[in-house]
Amino acid sequence: MPDTQLEHAQTLIKLGQPEQDEWALSRIEDALPTRRPVIVPLSLWQANAGDSQLAPWLASDTLLDDELAALLVKAPLVAIDFPAFTDGRGYSLARLLRERYGYQGEVRAIGDVLVDQLYYMSRCGFDALALRDDQHLDDALRALGAFSVSYQPGVDVQEALFERRLREANGA
After folding, report:
1. Rounded to whole angstroms, how far apart are CA atoms 26 and 7?
2. What is the tens place of the pLDDT at every residue in 125-144?
3. How far, in Å, are 24, 41, 142, 172 from residue 32 at the CA level?
4. What's the angle, vertex CA 123, arms to CA 117 and CA 129, rounded to 5?
5. For the segment 106-125, what is each residue's pLDDT rounded down to a tens digit?
């Protein structure tokens, strides 16, 4: 596959900071690019699982079961695709990876990733965010810090606000 068909994140935010993206992204399902490191469709990654310079991306409709989660532990990163900003299934995949399966590696949002979604993505377990090309870095960094307190529990804060308040009131 010609490497000219690879995508590169214009703007990558990792752990809340801008970062130069060393990973290319291939959306071609039937050809392995020569460039490394590269994020490839799940089926290609599975077929070449011994290559540490490959990482999988999961489609939003991926069935994340125990068997797949056990394989993903070996991946240097797991990217989750948002084919449209209205498709929220990627949030569930990230949360399952982190909470149910204890995945400790990088979980990256790719695809139709908008500034408005970043705070919520980070609460669900994404620690790397590849912004859509028309999104601005300054806006994205502001969006990540938009809220100082969250009511609901998340991957980042496991306790709901009311539980924290009760614990603090009881001196615990």
Report:
1. 6
2. 999 999 999 998 898 888 87
3. 12, 10, 37, 54
4. 50
5. 999 999 999 999 989 998 89
